[in-house]
Amino acid sequence: MERMASPAEFDQMIKSGELIESPNEMTPEYLRELKHTLVVSGDTELISAPAYYLAAKRAPSINAFMTGIAIIQDELAHAHIAYHILEDLGEDQEALIFSRDPKSFRYPYAFDVPLDSWTELVVANGMYDQAGFCLLGDIHEKCSYGPWKRGLNKVMAEENFHLRNGRTWMKRISQAGGSAKEELQRAVDWMFPLSVEWFGLPDSLKMHSTQLEFRLKGLTNDQLRQWWLSLVVPYCEQIGIKVPSHKETRDGKDVWELDYPFPCEFDAAEKRWDFKQPISWDDVLVRWRERGPRNAEMVAMFQEEFHKFRKAHHQNGARR
Amino acid sequence: MPVNLVDLGVIYGIKENDGVVDVDLTFTAMGCPASEFILEDVRERLLREDGIREVRVNVVWNPPWTVARMTEAGRDALEAWGLAV
User: What architecture does CATH give domain A19-200+209-319?
Assistant: First the structure.
């Protein structure tokens, strides 16, 4: 067996761009941070399945429904990639998925707010999947853990398909005009700021990132948020949908500014932001920790079936 | 997928008459999740050609598509992408 690297040697491996291939090579701190990052990724992919499914049921055609279902299947496979790697790192995949308290799942708050229509689903594909694309694209490019970096090849190709569904439908609905376009604008109005929040604390409040230090990712929260804005804002403007952000040029560089206080108050039941009500990041963290309206329902969707099945299976086994 | 519809072998026929194009096209599977995008792409692309004012896409299932319908270039592209064909 390989000798474990000293912390200094390990640090040098990370800095030189080498890939880490097995737990034997890791320091305990690296292992802990890698696991945490994988749990967030796996949980996010997993929870998107029930979130999207509850809305895909309202697809306007059988072809559209098939696309929705294909996306859900992709998301489950993406979750499995993350949990499978966690298993290789010593975690119990079954326990992670089926035995955790709903509130302990680590996915973005946005998924806790119900997607109630096909329109909201395609905006999620256009905005939430774009956020996932930026976060995972960065990891795919920069991640120091080889197995995850390679696992993301498949994920990135498929996320493109989800984005395509979101963008194609957003354009189509906008072109239809009238009440369809109004519904689209309403969805964007509450989903845009939730996606902006997705990338977490601004760099000014987050002085130190262990994830960056270990090269688990390559870009800071604000850099990722800017990347997302640079993709989403021009597209929305191009299809005639208003978003509360604009571009400024500073020192010859494009910077995307938000036209509302960030962060600010959100009413999840009403799906409404109060741009007149700035809040602190501590307030946001409280909302995130308490989780939103659909958290328990979505986790129950996969956990209850699992336990029901297991119970029935064991009873049958006992009778035989 | 990094392969065009012609090299994939799903375009069965194309006719143009007085600015109206008829395309016979199939899918690689009946439950193709990309069918909506493909139909829209074909229509959008052909309408960009000079003198084309209408595009009619007919989805046909006979003869069924098989990998044998792919061109050499299509096969190479998919293999380079990691799919065995």
Answer: Up-down Bundle (1.20)
